Protein backbone atom coordinates (compact mmCIF):
# COMPACT_ATOMS: atom_id res chain seq x y z
CA UNK A 1 0.00 0.00 0.00
CA UNK A 2 2.82 2.39 0.91
CA UNK A 3 4.54 1.57 -2.37
CA UNK A 4 1.40 2.35 -4.35
CA UNK A 5 0.92 5.65 -2.56
CA UNK A 6 4.56 6.56 -3.23
CA UNK A 7 4.15 5.66 -6.87
CA UNK A 8 1.01 7.81 -7.06
CA UNK A 9 2.78 10.69 -5.36
CA UNK A 10 5.64 10.36 -7.83
CA UNK A 11 3.28 10.36 -10.81
CA UNK A 12 1.42 13.39 -9.47
CA UNK A 13 4.64 15.29 -8.93
CA UNK A 14 5.74 14.49 -12.50
CA UNK A 15 2.50 15.78 -13.98
CA UNK A 16 2.57 18.93 -11.85
CA UNK A 17 6.09 19.92 -12.83
CA UNK A 18 5.60 20.09 -16.57
CA UNK A 19 9.07 20.43 -18.06
CA UNK A 20 9.78 22.85 -20.81
CA UNK A 21 10.85 21.03 -23.97
CA UNK A 22 9.17 23.43 -26.36
CA UNK A 23 10.63 26.85 -25.67
CA UNK A 24 14.28 27.71 -26.11
CA UNK A 25 16.34 30.87 -25.92
CA UNK A 26 16.25 33.22 -28.91
CA UNK A 27 12.86 32.29 -30.30
CA UNK A 28 10.97 35.00 -32.16
CA UNK A 29 7.39 34.72 -33.33
CA UNK A 30 5.71 37.54 -35.24
CA UNK A 31 1.95 37.84 -35.65
CA UNK A 32 -0.57 40.09 -37.32
CA UNK A 33 -3.56 40.96 -35.19
CA UNK A 34 -6.62 41.75 -37.25
CA UNK A 35 -10.28 42.46 -36.88
CA UNK A 36 -12.70 40.27 -38.77
CA UNK A 37 -16.20 41.45 -39.49
CA UNK A 38 -18.33 39.34 -41.83
CA UNK A 39 -15.18 37.98 -43.46
CA UNK A 40 -13.64 41.41 -44.10
CA UNK A 41 -10.24 41.60 -42.45
CA UNK A 42 -8.66 44.80 -41.17
CA UNK A 43 -5.08 44.60 -39.93
CA UNK A 44 -4.66 46.31 -36.59
CA UNK A 45 -1.31 45.57 -35.02
CA UNK A 46 1.85 43.55 -35.06
CA UNK A 47 2.43 41.26 -32.11
CA UNK A 48 5.84 39.78 -31.40
CA UNK A 49 6.69 37.10 -28.85
CA UNK A 50 10.39 36.75 -28.10
CA UNK A 51 12.49 34.73 -25.71
CA UNK A 52 16.07 35.38 -24.64
CA UNK A 53 18.56 34.29 -22.01
CA UNK A 54 19.23 36.62 -19.08
CA UNK A 55 22.32 35.93 -17.05
CA UNK A 56 22.49 37.18 -13.51
CA UNK A 57 25.47 36.63 -11.21
CA UNK A 58 23.67 33.66 -9.63
CA UNK A 59 21.80 31.96 -12.44
CA UNK A 60 20.38 32.09 -15.96
CA UNK A 61 16.76 33.00 -16.54
CA UNK A 62 14.48 32.97 -19.54
CA UNK A 63 13.06 36.30 -20.56
CA UNK A 64 9.66 36.12 -22.23
CA UNK A 65 8.71 39.29 -24.02
CA UNK A 66 5.47 40.15 -25.82
CA UNK A 67 5.03 43.36 -27.71
CA UNK A 68 2.00 44.81 -29.47
CA UNK A 69 2.36 47.78 -31.81
CA UNK A 70 -0.36 49.21 -34.01
CA UNK A 71 0.35 49.63 -37.71
CA UNK A 72 1.25 53.15 -38.82
CA UNK A 73 -2.20 53.77 -40.36
CA UNK A 74 -3.73 53.41 -36.87
CA UNK A 75 -1.16 55.47 -34.99
CA UNK A 76 -2.99 58.78 -35.50
CA UNK A 77 -6.30 57.32 -34.35
CA UNK A 78 -5.47 54.90 -31.56
CA UNK A 79 -1.82 54.26 -30.96
CA UNK A 80 -0.94 51.13 -28.99
CA UNK A 81 2.54 50.39 -27.71
CA UNK A 82 2.21 47.53 -25.22
CA UNK A 83 5.05 45.62 -23.68
CA UNK A 84 4.75 42.59 -21.42
CA UNK A 85 7.74 40.71 -20.11
CA UNK A 86 8.33 37.96 -17.63
CA UNK A 87 11.59 36.58 -16.25
CA UNK A 88 11.11 32.88 -15.59
CA UNK A 89 12.83 29.65 -14.68
CA UNK A 90 13.90 28.17 -18.06
CA UNK A 91 12.75 24.67 -17.07
CA UNK A 92 9.53 25.16 -15.12
CA UNK A 93 8.59 28.65 -16.40
CA UNK A 94 7.99 29.77 -12.84
CA UNK A 95 7.98 33.60 -12.90
CA UNK A 96 10.25 35.75 -10.76
CA UNK A 97 9.70 39.19 -12.21
CA UNK A 98 6.98 40.57 -14.46
CA UNK A 99 6.70 43.92 -16.17
CA UNK A 100 3.76 45.32 -18.03
CA UNK A 101 4.08 48.67 -19.70
CA UNK A 102 1.03 49.70 -21.70
CA UNK A 103 0.41 52.80 -23.73
CA UNK A 104 -2.99 52.64 -25.38
CA UNK A 105 -4.41 55.74 -27.06
CA UNK A 106 -2.80 58.05 -24.51
CA UNK A 107 -3.57 55.85 -21.49
CA UNK A 108 -0.40 54.79 -19.73
CA UNK A 109 0.12 52.15 -17.07
CA UNK A 110 3.15 50.30 -15.79
CA UNK A 111 2.86 47.30 -13.51
CA UNK A 112 5.68 45.38 -11.93
CA UNK A 113 5.33 42.11 -10.02
CA UNK A 114 8.12 40.63 -7.97
CA UNK A 115 7.24 37.05 -7.06
CA UNK A 116 8.30 35.54 -3.79
CA UNK A 117 7.44 31.85 -4.07
CA UNK A 118 8.66 31.10 -0.56
CA UNK A 119 6.22 33.44 1.13
CA UNK A 120 3.59 33.05 -1.62
CA UNK A 121 3.30 36.77 -2.09
CA UNK A 122 3.82 39.21 -4.92
CA UNK A 123 5.13 42.71 -4.46
CA UNK A 124 3.42 44.95 -6.95
CA UNK A 125 4.24 48.46 -8.08
CA UNK A 126 1.79 50.29 -10.27
CA UNK A 127 2.71 53.51 -12.07
CA UNK A 128 0.50 55.79 -14.10
CA UNK A 129 0.88 59.16 -15.76
CA UNK A 130 2.36 62.10 -13.85
CA UNK A 131 4.44 59.92 -11.53
CA UNK A 132 1.49 58.32 -9.75
CA UNK A 133 2.83 55.28 -7.87
CA UNK A 134 1.03 52.65 -5.82
CA UNK A 135 2.72 49.77 -4.04
CA UNK A 136 0.85 46.74 -2.77
CA UNK A 137 1.70 43.21 -1.69
CA UNK A 138 -0.80 40.53 -2.67
CA UNK A 139 -0.97 36.90 -1.55
CA UNK A 140 -0.99 34.26 -4.31
CA UNK A 141 -1.61 30.54 -4.60
CA UNK A 142 1.14 27.99 -5.20
CA UNK A 143 0.56 27.77 -8.97
CA UNK A 144 -0.30 31.38 -9.72
CA UNK A 145 1.59 32.83 -12.67
CA UNK A 146 1.47 36.03 -14.65
CA UNK A 147 -0.31 36.08 -18.00
CA UNK A 148 2.82 35.80 -20.16
CA UNK A 149 4.32 32.81 -18.39
CA UNK A 150 0.88 31.15 -18.43
CA UNK A 151 0.69 31.60 -22.21
CA UNK A 152 4.07 29.96 -22.60
CA UNK A 153 3.26 27.25 -20.02
CA UNK A 154 0.37 26.04 -22.20
CA UNK A 155 3.01 25.12 -24.80
CA UNK A 156 4.87 22.88 -22.40
CA UNK A 157 2.02 20.41 -21.93
CA UNK A 158 2.09 17.06 -23.58
CA UNK A 159 -1.05 17.06 -25.69
CA UNK A 160 -0.24 13.98 -27.79
CA UNK A 161 -2.40 11.45 -25.99
CA UNK A 162 -5.12 13.69 -24.66
CA UNK A 163 -8.73 13.04 -25.56
CA UNK A 164 -10.71 16.04 -26.72
CA UNK A 165 -12.60 17.80 -23.97
CA UNK A 166 -9.80 17.41 -21.41
CA UNK A 167 -9.27 20.65 -19.55
CA UNK A 168 -6.81 22.19 -17.15
CA UNK A 169 -7.27 25.12 -14.81
CA UNK A 170 -4.83 27.98 -14.34
CA UNK A 171 -4.61 30.85 -11.94
CA UNK A 172 -3.42 34.08 -13.52
CA UNK A 173 -2.44 37.21 -11.66
CA UNK A 174 -3.72 40.15 -13.68
CA UNK A 175 -4.23 43.69 -12.43
CA UNK A 176 -3.28 42.39 -8.96
CA UNK A 177 -6.19 39.96 -8.91
CA UNK A 178 -6.14 36.22 -9.28
CA UNK A 179 -8.20 35.06 -12.24
CA UNK A 180 -9.14 31.45 -12.75
CA UNK A 181 -8.78 30.37 -16.35
CA UNK A 182 -9.44 27.12 -18.12
CA UNK A 183 -7.72 25.60 -21.13
CA UNK A 184 -9.60 22.86 -22.96
CA UNK A 185 -8.11 20.56 -25.57
CA UNK A 186 -10.45 20.33 -28.56
CA UNK A 187 -8.59 17.91 -30.83
CA UNK A 188 -6.40 18.07 -33.93
CA UNK A 189 -7.01 20.17 -36.99
CA UNK A 190 -5.01 20.92 -40.16
CA UNK A 191 -4.91 24.57 -41.13
CA UNK A 192 -2.95 26.60 -43.66
CA UNK A 193 -0.67 29.28 -42.24
CA UNK A 194 2.11 31.59 -43.43
CA UNK A 195 4.52 28.81 -42.39
CA UNK A 196 2.76 26.26 -44.60
CA UNK A 197 0.00 23.76 -43.92
CA UNK A 198 0.25 22.61 -40.33
CA UNK A 199 -1.43 19.96 -38.27
CA UNK A 200 -2.40 21.69 -35.05
CA UNK A 201 -3.69 21.06 -31.58
CA UNK A 202 -6.81 23.14 -31.15
CA UNK A 203 -7.39 24.48 -27.65
CA UNK A 204 -9.93 26.83 -26.18
CA UNK A 205 -9.25 29.45 -23.54
CA UNK A 206 -11.95 30.52 -21.16
CA UNK A 207 -12.81 31.40 -17.62
CA UNK A 208 -13.51 28.67 -15.08
CA UNK A 209 -16.38 30.50 -13.41
CA UNK A 210 -18.64 31.34 -16.30
CA UNK A 211 -17.72 28.42 -18.61
CA UNK A 212 -17.54 30.84 -21.51
CA UNK A 213 -14.99 30.47 -24.27
CA UNK A 214 -13.04 33.66 -24.85
CA UNK A 215 -10.66 32.43 -27.47
CA UNK A 216 -9.41 29.50 -29.50
CA UNK A 217 -5.76 28.81 -30.19
CA UNK A 218 -4.10 26.51 -32.70
CA UNK A 219 -0.68 25.14 -31.62
CA UNK A 220 1.46 23.20 -34.09
CA UNK A 221 1.32 19.47 -33.38
CA UNK A 222 5.12 19.12 -33.08
CA UNK A 223 7.69 19.50 -30.31
CA UNK A 224 7.66 23.32 -30.51
CA UNK A 225 3.90 23.73 -30.19
CA UNK A 226 4.03 27.27 -31.50
CA UNK A 227 0.73 29.14 -31.61
CA UNK A 228 0.07 29.75 -35.32
CA UNK A 229 -3.48 31.01 -35.26
CA UNK A 230 -5.82 32.46 -32.66
CA UNK A 231 -9.43 33.64 -32.67
CA UNK A 232 -10.83 35.84 -29.91
CA UNK A 233 -14.32 36.91 -29.06
CA UNK A 234 -15.05 40.62 -29.04
CA UNK A 235 -18.47 42.31 -28.80
CA UNK A 236 -18.83 42.83 -32.57
CA UNK A 237 -16.95 40.55 -34.98
CA UNK A 238 -13.88 38.52 -34.02
CA UNK A 239 -10.24 39.27 -33.35
CA UNK A 240 -7.68 37.16 -35.15
CA UNK A 241 -4.02 36.50 -34.58
CA UNK A 242 -2.13 35.03 -37.53
CA UNK A 243 1.51 34.03 -37.55
CA UNK A 244 3.74 35.93 -39.98
CA UNK A 245 7.14 34.47 -39.22
CA UNK A 246 8.91 32.21 -36.74
CA UNK A 247 12.64 31.92 -36.06
CA UNK A 248 14.97 30.42 -33.49
CA UNK A 249 12.72 27.48 -32.70
CA UNK A 250 14.07 24.94 -30.23
CA UNK A 251 13.27 21.76 -32.17
CA UNK B 1 -41.65 53.20 -49.72
CA UNK B 2 -39.61 55.26 -52.15
CA UNK B 3 -38.79 57.74 -49.42
CA UNK B 4 -37.71 54.97 -47.03
CA UNK B 5 -35.26 53.45 -49.53
CA UNK B 6 -33.90 56.88 -50.43
CA UNK B 7 -33.21 57.65 -46.77
CA UNK B 8 -31.64 54.21 -46.20
CA UNK B 9 -29.43 54.65 -49.28
CA UNK B 10 -28.35 58.09 -48.10
CA UNK B 11 -27.52 56.87 -44.58
CA UNK B 12 -25.63 53.84 -45.89
CA UNK B 13 -23.63 55.95 -48.35
CA UNK B 14 -22.67 58.41 -45.59
CA UNK B 15 -21.48 55.47 -43.46
CA UNK B 16 -19.51 54.18 -46.44
CA UNK B 17 -17.77 57.55 -46.81
CA UNK B 18 -17.01 57.74 -43.06
CA UNK B 19 -15.57 54.20 -42.97
CA UNK B 20 -13.54 54.75 -46.11
CA UNK B 21 -11.60 57.67 -44.63
CA UNK B 22 -10.94 55.83 -41.34
CA UNK B 23 -8.19 53.19 -41.04
CA UNK B 24 -11.09 50.69 -41.07
CA UNK B 25 -11.52 51.43 -44.77
CA UNK B 26 -12.07 47.77 -45.72
CA UNK B 27 -15.30 47.79 -43.73
CA UNK B 28 -16.72 50.53 -46.00
CA UNK B 29 -17.64 47.75 -48.45
CA UNK B 30 -20.56 46.64 -46.24
CA UNK B 31 -22.45 49.99 -46.15
CA UNK B 32 -21.42 50.65 -49.76
CA UNK B 33 -23.18 47.47 -50.93
CA UNK B 34 -26.19 48.44 -48.79
CA UNK B 35 -26.23 51.93 -50.31
CA UNK B 36 -26.09 50.54 -53.84
CA UNK B 37 -28.93 48.06 -53.22
CA UNK B 38 -31.17 50.64 -51.51
CA UNK B 39 -30.25 53.25 -54.11
CA UNK B 40 -31.17 50.97 -57.03
CA UNK B 41 -34.50 50.07 -55.41
CA UNK B 42 -35.24 53.76 -54.73
CA UNK B 43 -34.19 54.60 -58.30
CA UNK B 44 -36.60 52.08 -59.89
CA UNK B 45 -39.44 53.00 -57.57
CA UNK B 46 -39.06 56.66 -58.46
CA UNK B 47 -38.69 55.87 -62.14
CA UNK B 48 -42.03 54.06 -62.00
CA UNK B 49 -43.58 57.22 -60.66
CA UNK B 50 -41.95 59.25 -63.35
CA UNK B 51 -39.46 61.52 -61.55
CA UNK B 52 -36.04 60.54 -60.20
CA UNK B 53 -34.84 62.83 -57.44
CA UNK B 54 -31.30 64.19 -57.47
CA UNK B 55 -30.69 62.86 -53.94
CA UNK B 56 -30.64 59.26 -55.25
CA UNK B 57 -27.96 60.11 -57.78
CA UNK B 58 -26.10 61.88 -54.98
CA UNK B 59 -26.06 58.65 -52.91
CA UNK B 60 -24.59 56.81 -55.91
CA UNK B 61 -21.83 59.42 -56.23
CA UNK B 62 -21.04 59.18 -52.49
CA UNK B 63 -20.92 55.37 -52.68
CA UNK B 64 -18.60 55.39 -55.69
CA UNK B 65 -16.29 57.88 -54.00
CA UNK B 66 -16.24 55.65 -50.88
CA UNK B 67 -15.45 52.57 -52.97
CA UNK B 68 -12.73 54.44 -54.85
CA UNK B 69 -11.06 55.58 -51.60
CA UNK B 70 -11.31 52.04 -50.15
CA UNK B 71 -9.79 50.46 -53.26
CA UNK B 72 -7.01 53.05 -53.39
CA UNK B 73 -6.19 52.54 -49.71
CA UNK B 74 -6.23 48.75 -49.90
CA UNK B 75 -3.77 48.83 -52.81
CA UNK B 76 -1.43 51.63 -51.75
CA UNK B 77 -1.42 51.61 -47.94
CA UNK B 78 1.44 49.59 -46.51
CA UNK B 79 0.80 47.67 -43.32
CA UNK B 80 3.98 48.47 -41.49
CA UNK B 81 5.07 49.36 -38.00
CA UNK B 82 6.84 52.69 -37.65
CA UNK B 83 7.60 54.99 -34.77
CA UNK B 84 8.95 52.36 -32.39
CA UNK B 85 11.67 54.50 -30.74
CA UNK B 86 9.64 55.11 -27.59
CA UNK B 87 8.84 51.44 -26.98
CA UNK B 88 12.44 50.44 -27.69
CA UNK B 89 13.62 52.96 -25.11
CA UNK B 90 11.14 51.50 -22.61
CA UNK B 91 12.40 47.99 -23.39
CA UNK B 92 15.98 48.98 -22.64
CA UNK B 93 14.99 50.86 -19.50
CA UNK B 94 12.91 47.96 -18.17
CA UNK B 95 15.68 45.47 -18.94
CA UNK B 96 18.24 47.52 -17.02
CA UNK B 97 15.86 47.94 -14.07
CA UNK B 98 14.94 44.26 -14.12
CA UNK B 99 18.57 43.13 -14.16
CA UNK B 100 19.16 45.14 -11.00
CA UNK B 101 16.04 43.72 -9.42
CA UNK B 102 16.89 40.13 -10.38
CA UNK B 103 20.37 40.45 -8.86
CA UNK B 104 18.73 41.34 -5.56
CA UNK B 105 16.23 38.49 -5.69
CA UNK B 106 16.78 35.21 -3.98
CA UNK B 107 16.32 32.84 -6.92
CA UNK B 108 16.77 29.16 -6.36
CA UNK B 109 17.34 27.26 -9.57
CA UNK B 110 19.18 23.99 -9.66
CA UNK B 111 21.94 24.74 -12.21
CA UNK B 112 22.27 21.06 -13.11
CA UNK B 113 18.71 21.23 -14.42
CA UNK B 114 19.77 23.82 -16.97
CA UNK B 115 22.76 21.96 -18.32
CA UNK B 116 20.89 20.30 -21.14
CA UNK B 117 19.48 23.58 -22.42
CA UNK B 118 21.55 24.90 -25.31
CA UNK B 119 22.33 28.60 -25.16
CA UNK B 120 22.38 30.61 -28.35
CA UNK B 121 24.48 33.61 -27.63
Give a short account of the largest sheet of chain A: 15 strands, mixed
CATH topology of chain A: YmcC-like fold
- CATH class of chain A equals Mainly Beta
- CATH second-level architecture of chain A: Beta Barrel
Largest interface: A-B, 45 and 38 residues
Strand content of chain A: over 45%
Structure summary, number of beta strands of chain A: 15
Give the number of helices of chain B: 5
User: Mean pLDDT score of chain B, rounded?
Assistant: 85
Described by its quaternary structure, the protein is: heterodimer
- What best-fitting shape of chain B do the alpha-carbon axes yield? rod-shaped
Number of helices of chain A: 3
When the domains of chain A are counted, the total is: 1
Distance between the termini of chain A: 41 Å
Mean pLDDT of chain A, nearest integer? 86
The dominant shape of chain A is: globular
Quick recap:
Chain A has about 250 residues and is mostly beta strands. Chain A has helices spanning about 1-15, 70-75, 145-155, and strands at about 30-35, 40-55, 60-70, 80-90, 95-105, 105-115, 120-130, 130-140, 145, 165-175, 175-195, 195-205, 215-220, 225-235, 240-245.
Protein architecture, described:
The complex is a heterodimer of chains A (251) and B (121). Chain A has helices spanning 2-16, 72-75, 147-154; strands at residues 28-37, 40-55, 60-70, 80-88, 95-104, 107-116, 121-128, 132-139, 145-146, 167-174, 177-193, 196-207, 213-220, 227-233, 238-247. Chain A has 251 residues and is mostly beta strands. Chain A has a single domain, classed as YmcC-like fold (Beta Barrel), CATH 2.40.360. In chain A, a hairpin with a 4-residue loop joins strand 2 (40-55) and strand 3 (60-70). The longest helix of chain A is centred in the first third of the chain and has 15 residues, at 2-16. With 121 residues, chain B is mainly alpha-helical. Chain B has a domain at 2-76. Chain B is 73% helix and 0% strand. Chain B is built from five helices and no strands. The interface between A and B is large, with 45 and 38 residues.
